[in-house]
Amino acid sequence: VQLQAFGGGLVQAGDSLRLSCVASGLTFDDYSMAWFRQAPGKEREFVAQLTWNGGTMYSADSGKGRFIVSGDNAKKTVYLRMDSLTPEDTADYYCAAAQGCATPHAPSYPYWGPGTQVTVSS
User: Fold this and answer.
1) Is the predicted pLDDT of residue 121 greater than 90, yes or no?
2) Which long-range contacts does 57-61 make (Cβ < 8 Å, 24+ apart)?
3) What is the pLDDT of residue 22?
C-alpha cells in the first residue's frame, strides 16, 4: 500500500485548500481513509475520515464545520476540502489507510503517506 498526499502550500487566513491523497496497492472500497495533521511541537491529531462503507467522520475540534472529506473510488483518491483557514490550521497533513473499520486514532491506521505541509499566514 502506498499513499501520496499533495495540495498543501502557503495561503492566507480565510483562504481555502483542497488536499488530495492518491492510494495504490489496495482495494479502495475496502479501506477507511483518514486525514491527520501535526503542528510543530504538537501531537498528531485526527482531522477526518472517509469510512470504508462511504460514511464520514470528523474531529470535534480540528476544522469542525470548515473541512469536508470526500473520495473518488475510481481514482482511489481521498480529498480534504478546507475552508476559512486560520493560522491554527498550519500543520503537516497526513493521509492514512486502514482496511475495514478504523477508529479516529493514529494507531488504528497501519499505512501512512508522507505529509503535505499547509501554512496559513495571518
Assistant:
1) yes
2) 57/104, 59/104
3) 98
Set of cell numbers at residue 65: 464545520
Cα(24)–Cα(66) distance, rounded to whole angstroms? 28
Residue 119 contacts residue 10 (beta carbons within 8 Å): yes
Cell of 104: 479516529
Residue pLDDT, tens place only, 5-25: 999 999 999 999 999 999 999
The phi-psi region of residue 100 (left if phi > 0; otherwise alpha if psi is between -120 and 50; otherwise beta) is left
β-pairing, 45-50 with 56-58? antiparallel
Determine the Cα angle at 54 with ends 48 and 110, to 5°: 55
Separation of first and last alpha carbons in the chain:
37
